[in-house]
Amino acid sequence: MSYEIEINEQRFEDEPRPGQCLRTYLRERGWFGVKKGCDQGDCGACTVHVDGQPVHSCLYPAVRAEGRSVTTVEGLASPCGDLHPAQKQFLEAQGFQCGFCTAGFLMTTSALQAERGTVHDDGKLDDLPRAFKGNICRCTGYRAIEDAVRGVRHIEEPGAGRAVGRSPGAPAGPQVVTGTARYTFDVEIPGLLHMKLLRSPHPHARVVGIDTREALRVPGVHAVFTHHDAPDHLYSSARHEHPTEDPMDTRVLDDVVRFVGQRVAAVVADSEQAAEEGCRRVVVSYEELPYVIDPEEAMLPGAPVLHPKGPESGIFRAENNVCGEVHGTIGDMERGYAEADVVHEETFRTQRVQHASLETHGSVAYFEPKEDGEGERITVRTSSQAPFLTRRALCALYGLDEDEVRVVTGRVGGGFGGKQEMLTEDIVVLAALRLRRPVKLEFTRTEQFHGATTRHPFKITVKAGAKEDGTLTALRIRIVSNTGAYGNHGPAVMFHSVGESFAVYKAPNKQVEAYSVYTNTVPAGAFRGYGLGQVLFALESVMDELALRLGMDPLALREKNVIGPGDPMVTPIGHEEDLFIASYGMKQALDVVRRAEAEDRSHEDVPEGWLTGTGSAVAMIATGPPGGHFADARVSLLSDGTYDVAVGTAEFGNGTTTVHQQLTAGALNTTVDRITVRQSDTDVVRHDTGAFGSAGTVVAGKAVMLAAGSLAERLRTFAARHTGVARHLCGLEAEAVDCAGRVLTLKELYEAAHARGALEEIAADGHWGGSPRSVAFNAQWFRLAVDPDTGEMRILRSVHAADAGKVMNPMQCRGQVEGGVAQALGATLFETVRVDERGEVTTAAFRRYRLPQYADVPRTEVHFMETSDAIGPLGAKSMSESPFNPVAPAFANALRDATGIRFTELPVTRDVVWREINRKLQGGTDD
User: Fold this and answer.
1) Using one digit for the tens of pLDDT, what is the confidence trace for 652-696?
2) Environment class of residue 352 by beta-carbon count within 10 Å: exposed (0-12), middle (13-18) or buried (19+)?
3) Quick one: which of 417, 623, 421 has its CA closest to 531?
4) Which listed residue, 116, 181, 305, 712, has the most CB atoms within 10 A of its CB?
5) CA 91/CA 396 separation, integer angstroms
6) How many Å apart are CA 37 and CA 189, to the nearest integer?
7) What are the pLDDT digits (tens) for 75-97?
8) In 10 A of CB 640, how many CB atoms?
């Protein structure tokens, strides 16, 4: 067979493998802008042009491209480097966050632009829900993408020292829109071997025998690893600064499997195809064991015990499958309910939700010389939110010193908490150490559902009492959290879920009873909101029910009981000594909601017969995890007169890189284009806990600010000594130091320091330990319309009030809020990881797991409160997780207002709404 293909105006004659798709063919030739998001044609991240027409390259056979011209995102720009109009529009609108989906949107948009005004123009550019039905974005909420297509410019170019509070673009923006930003696997590594995992078909079983002989006979297979090859060491896949926060219940490969999808063996081969065939030929003998799926049943006497381990494991009550629990009471609950004029009790359920970051979990381990040149070390390139904690865990697992392990993270294609885990790094390092070869493991989309983690499903019972004037007298919450087969994040999510959610309302009598419970299901883990979203769905729903029974305005009830500035944050699990209300935006947030409701006219155009309603909810969240969250930073003057920022936190669309540039530019009175950020590499700084817990700005950002401020002082001191001018007369400018009229360029300053051997005097370090902490507030309001004949729901208006303190970058912060609302709407309306009676996931593809698409997400009006925090850097607070939390209850409250029905289980799907409306019409009642 003769084969010829043109890729970005270059000719290739390499024949594709039998059955090879165009996506892998292109990536193998270095066109890394073509992404793998699903390999099933659902997400659009792999979109390319074939003879000018957009196609999903994961479904397009490479052999069909023979004789054709293929254009990837790298080929959109002109040969002289001028950006394509679509690339320029996406850059100026910042129509991306993590950027993993951006190439797909760009290729779709540019193809439609090329058709504009031709006979092929079918109007899709004017109908974006139809145009983007084959493209998914998990981060942005789509508003920024629409603005990009419409040519709206958002980025600004602030002057020297004026970047904070403005909207400069992300420093990686040009690389994102040209397909040259490097994610985890966008590198070429010679001699690379590929790993595939054999996974358990049983919910609970003991491995009694593994025969690997036939697998090892497959051509290209190098090794098969089983529990016999794994260290005996127990650990947790969760990454926390303090490992004791999580039970030690996991092995790299175990001889007992506890859920369908748990890894049993790893096959390493020259190709993925050979490794997959090797997995098919591994013969495993199992002794099936009793299993339990329901967490309430799992706690009963006689239930199968998943982890018969001792107290050294950190499991609270292994014999009852209780991974963690907390009980606490403040005041007298019986007296509190007796004093109430109205008492309401209700039970709510929330579902499993997948993070669905478009870049799946994956790692590659390889060897390189140590920094001192003495021997080799293993380097792990991984898609992680916590590279430093991952290095620490790998060293403990394999008995290595820290200088023997480097962990580096490229640009991360979405996280949302799911990559605060060690799910691939441990096993690729096992294989690389044994084989002394580079080894890669990249999850498929199916494996993301079967072998990664989900949000914790909760069962929440709330009992609340209030006096006739609305004063809360008693508040009780009982929670059962299903942590799945392993306890990673189980106790921590449980504790966090009853922290700020409980403290946001004042009541003299409070009680909590909470359990994190093992079951034979896919493990849960960290997810945006870290338990608060589940509990607030219940609590905020009950607050509306109390208001209804009291005949009060729900907002007035909240205003009467919500915590105020100076109030103690009281919960039955104890007071957190380092947590303060260092700025207060809740009143402003409630005012935003009240104005929206008073002024809204969106219900006036709904179809006849439709029901309309409004609803709101509030939330409070700590601006960082308890117990310390550490970040080191170093800012240095470089030989060309620009600055280098070294910081450990990872960038995955959270915008911290831009904020770190802005903070540095402000402290050094320069412009952001003169600052380079190196990050998420254990070689760069001493330590960084990680990019989770909304810590990128308030922890790592504070470390950067302290380092930059210290460097500014050092530069003025050095310039004063060098020029003989008094220090107070030396001022930093964008590219120089002005010493009483004598201008010394920064390049000259570096040369002077270099000549004196004083480079340490033109660099400075910063450190922040994450304590004390403040709190941020959010409020969400919806107006809905519901068709009682079909159950269809339309969001007529969405308003979000965000108390982010001093907003570092309004464009980026708005995007974080919009993305959080969109993701929460998915979890509210249709997203659910379903499991069958054996605990096996049955929604292991995007087409079966419904993600919000362009047509599903309304524009949310985002309002920032005018506050300045006393703790955060320059008054800033975190705003990555918190927008998610009030969305589901606000929607449920609006639905209650429209239909008169209280929906107590998520997701609230259209068929459920139709069924409940019909039940009510046929004589069933709500309250």
Assistant:
1) 999 999 999 999 999 999 999 999 999 999 999 999 999 998 899
2) buried
3) 417
4) 181
5) 43
6) 21
7) 999 988 899 999 999 999 999 99
8) 10
